[in-house]
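Quick entry between incubations.
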Amino acid sequence: MKTFEVNFDGLVGPTHNHAGLSFGNRASSNHGGQTSSPKQAALQGLEKMISLSRQGLKQAVLPPHDRPHVPSLRKLGFTGKTDVDIIAHAAKQAPNILASVSSSSAMWVANAATVSPFPDTLDGRTHFTPANLNSMFHRSIEVDTTSVILKSIFRGDEYQHHSALPAGQTYSDEGAANHSRLCSSYGEPGIELFVYGVCQTDTKSGPKKFPARQTRQASEAIARSHGLRAEKTVFAKQHPEAIDAGVFHNDVIAVANQNLLFCHQLAFAEPQLLRRELDSASGDDEITYIEVPADRVSLEDAVASYLFNSQLLSLPDQSSCNLIVPIECAENNAVKGYLDDLENDHAAISAVQYLDLRESMNNGGGPACLRLRVVMTQKQIEETKARVFLDEALYKDLKQWIERHYRESLHISDLLDPSLLLESRTALDELSQLLHLGAIYEFQQT
Ligand code: SUG
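Done. Structure below.
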């Protein structure tokens, strides 16, 4: 049975804005208060999706969440006769809370869940654990809707959906952004690599400046509940210097695809140990490492350009990969120089493609943040009821839907406008029908 790795990309929501909500994420802090363009953001993301699909890859889409999130405002004590009144209450008393519940951050679906595909698990099912995203309030409210969406797409006995890990610091989990898979081909058992920022029994060697958003305890719990083979599971610690330089998720400093690991010299606290463990777990399959030295690309340049928040594409009929990187990589001399050499000299990389995702990038989300990888067989793809696999017809429908419903620009002061709630709900109601997802949003239940 033919097996694919499908990239599910998060569609940017109608309330995409720059509120500077993520401490430790430099782009988010630097752009806080600036005007965003929800329409351009969504179109940029959609262009990325269709570009991959046109290159022969399996590409799918995940819907945005309902924002501003009124159920969260209710939980926090805001009241009113109608949802619009509740927004008005929050707008008056706590605009910062309203901004948090209005973020379109669910678009970065690399943080939606950790997925262990069927070849890796003892029961032969694909396991999903939605991320609790405990470390940031505006992200912690994503988990319930994420869970509903994943269950509505991945239905049946071949999929196992777990609850998110318990709340609190010990099990802080940010999903696939800290999880990679190395394999000889997607349908074969792979090594699952879990990367954490801090271990709760050794908090001294963590970062000093910025929070570590993934704990070892969370990663271990997921590996346990997904039923992974111990000899094929590796845990590695992020370099604390990297976190303090703005690497809030490991996918900002490393990316893997099949048997290739592309990372910065300072990605991991113990890189030699990691290589030994990966080599031993991979057995006869050789892993190729491309480690970028800090004297070629500094941590600062890596974070500013998002060089490693890239996607390594295994294109049909091509033995080496293409690398897709954000356009910011072409604007950074050190990074561009490195990429030119990589493209010319390294057998594992055939070509580098530059993508404009500036709107997402300004909140700290590059190409890899926008995708969640799920290994699926041709049969599983065919049996999926939801209309989420991108083809030219769906691309066209989504483009028109964005053009119809999204604002050209949005400033955090616009979040106080109650009509944004109705606009957003009208758009999402239509989208859930367009994608054949059923009533996935709380506002559709009443
Ligand atoms: O969680 N930014 C997101 C970016 C997530 C990127 N994801 C991965 N690396 N996989 C975050 O920090 C900023 C929102 C704002 O500031 O308005 C934000 O949530």
